[in-house]
Design brief:
The structure is a homodimer of 159-residue chains. The first copy, chain A, has 159 residues and is of the alpha+beta class. Chain A is 28% helix and 26% strand. The first copy, chain A, has a 3-stranded antiparallel sheet. In chain A, strands 5-4-7 form a 3-stranded mixed sheet, with no helix packed on it. In chain A, a hairpin with a 3-residue loop joins strand 4 and strand 5. In chain A, helix 1 packs across helix 2 and helix 3 packs across helix 4. The longest helix of chain A has 13 residues. At the A-B interface, strand 2, strand 4, strand 5, strand 6 and strand 7 of A face strand 2, strand 4, strand 5, strand 6 and strand 7 of B. Strand 7 of chain A pairs antiparallel with strand 7 of chain B. Chain A binds a DNA duplex (30 and 30 nucleotides) through helix 2 and helix 4.
DNA sequence: TCAACAGTTTAAAACAATTCTAAACTGGAA
DNA sequence: TTCCAGTTTAGAATTGTTTTAAACTGTTGA
């Protein structure tokens, strides 16, 4: 079935497969430790979603998108749960939300300090490593507020 | 009627009023010239919206917001037209769209190079003058793309 | 082992912001 | 004036997300 429309190839093995059968060895170890880390109960759905999210390297994913991936992976999860989970993960620091357009928000599995290119009109996000942007002289926040984070989004187009 | 809920006081006079009657003298001069500038037909609705937008100094406005302002100013415009107009103005460079959250986008009457504080959870936008942010070392855009613009949004909260 | 309950998931409805549609209207050229 | 492309409109449709209320499931402690 060569119809990987989602774009990302998910690497399933955490240990080397030892024979021709592509049996996964300890596929949930990472997902489990992440959930424990932030104190979320490791339910079937959360585990599966965590695996999809964090086993695939750095990804920029929408809710619909992840829901589709779950479907393809034969994981039964409702869209509402996908939303719940994405927000719980975001709130506990496992994910970062990146807003690029009205009605368009991505969840980024890379929570380290970095910025983004946003390719329009494709709607594609591309990471920019921290050290290739230098922000000097940040302003002081308005009275009574504290700085939470700085988002730099460089909008680019294909001419 | 002292119920100016929208927050912005719009200055109507472009010339001094000459008697006690608050009759506006050339209230549409600026709106008209802006529309001509970008080649949009000066219709009743566009003129009225342009006036609301550009006579009030720098503003961050949502579509619903502007629709409400029009209502209060006794201007009959549909919400669909407000959206159309905001996008036409944006496309022709009269406005700039600032996206801060999923399903939350503002139109900024200040089209000069500048950045924003976004105060959460109030959802309030505050201008940052260009020269109080210094961006050095910008990355080169992905192959086949050209840089359109750089958005810096500093998210702040009231603790 | 099991009862019990808080936490979780779910389908479905509700919601908010925005866009679309098809018909009515209008500014301006001829 | 007439005419027509451009514009506006009400209302429906769409999109993305959240809420609701009921069913389910992990975990705890007897």
């Amino acid at each position: 079935m060569p119809d990987d429309q989602t774009g990302k190839t998910v690497t399933d093995r955490t240990l080397q497969a030892t024979d021709s059968t592509p049996v996964v060895q300890r596929p949930y170890a990472d997902a489990l430790s992440r959930l424990k880390q932030v104190g979320l109960r490791p339910t079937r759905q959360r585990m599966a979603l965590a695996k999809l999210l964090f086993d695939g390297g750095d990804q920029h994913i929408t809710a619909e998108n992840l829901h589709g991936m779950a479907r393809k992976a034969a994981v039964k999860v409702s869209l509402a749960t996908v939303y719940n989970t994405l927000h719980q993960f975001t709130d506990s620091g496992l994910l970062r939300e990146v807003v690029v357009g009205p009605g368009r928000s991505y969840f980024d599995t890379n929570t380290h300090d970095h910025h983004h290119f946003y390719v329009e009109p494709a709607g594609e996000l591309v990471d920019i490593p921290v050290d290739s942007v230098e922000l000097s002289r940040l302003p002081t926040p308005p009275d009574g507020t504290v700085m939470d984070r700085v988002d730099v989004i460089i909008r680019v187009t294909r001419p």
